Amino acid sequence: MLETKRLKLVAFEKDDSGLVARWDESPDVRKYFFANAYALPEPEREKEMFDTWLEELEKGVACFYKVLQKKSTSGSRNKEKPIGMAGWHQTGDIPGRYELWLFIGEGNLLSKGLGTEVIKVLTESLFESYAAHTVMLCWHAYNLRGKRCYIDKCGFKYEARRREAILWEGEFYDMEIASITREEYDRLKKDGVYGDT
Ligand SMILES: CC(C)(COP(=O)(O)OP(=O)(O)OC[C@H]1O[C@@H](n2cnc3c(N)ncnc32)[C@H](O)[C@@H]1OP(=O)(O)O)[C@@H](O)C(=O)NCCC(=O)NCCS
């Protein structure tokens, strides 16, 4: 389990698949997360995505988390609440290179700094516990909220743009990629960007 000030990241269980189905209905999650990474029509797209995830989990090269919002101390919310998913996998091309992913499935909880907490705790865990050399992530170029979170708030450095790499509702869109190397992580940690969640 990983923990931040407001969140817990716990293992994602088979029984949680109903949550994914619910979050998949969220327009934000659909447009910014599930938007066709496999250039396939639905439901083939989802099957391909889940099959790839399962294969990676079985090989032990990936990790999936359910993101829980901790109990409120004010008493208005006294149960931990699942709010999204996150995880990583080894990219397989270069040793020590990991890719992160996440989504907050509850629309009313976007832009409240929770994504920043998730990215930071996962990045810390990969550098501190998995001997990562590079941690990367990618997003649809139109995801300006994601870009602000990853580049400006979490210290990821812009790496590349894959042009027209995504097909979504009949249109092609660019993907952007950013990363943090170990040297950069050490500097960010020294500067207090990491180690504060
Ligand atoms: C992307 C995501 C993980 C970021 O998490 P989050 O908790 O919303 O992000 P944060 O609040 O930490 O940071 C977002 C920042 O972007 C800003 N922002 C919001 N909309 C924006 C926009 N259209 N343009 C630029 N910045 C924007 C927010 O104000 C915030 O900045 P601030 O803290 O300076 O005010 C989350 O929004 C999400 O899950 N979105 C839906 C699915 C998704 O995009 N998944 C990621 C796929 S790569």
Provide a descriptive summary of the structure in words.
- With 197 residues, the protein is α+β, with helices and mostly antiparallel strands.
- The chain has a single domain, classed as Aminopeptidase (3-Layer(aba) Sandwich).
- It contains six helices and eight strands.
- The protein has an eight-stranded mixed sheet, sandwiched between helices.
- A hairpin with a 3-residue loop joins strand 1 and strand 2.
- It is globular and about 45 Å long.
- The mean pLDDT is 90.
Question: What keyword list fits this structure?
Answer:
single chain, 197 residues, alpha+beta, Aminopeptidase, eight-stranded mixed beta sheet, 6 helices, 34% helix, globular, binds coenzyme A
What's the topology here?
Layout: E1 2-3, E2 7-11, H1 17-23, H2 27-34, H3 44-59, E3 62-69, E4 81-90, E5 97-104, H4 114-129, E6 134-140, H5 144-153, E7 157-168, E8 171-181, H6 182-190
The structure holds coenzyme A.
Total of DSSP H or I helical runs spanning 4+ residues:
6
Quaternary structure annotation: single chain
As for the CATH topology, it is Aminopeptidase
| Count of all domains | 1
Summarize this entry quickly.
With 197 residues, the protein is of the alpha+beta class.
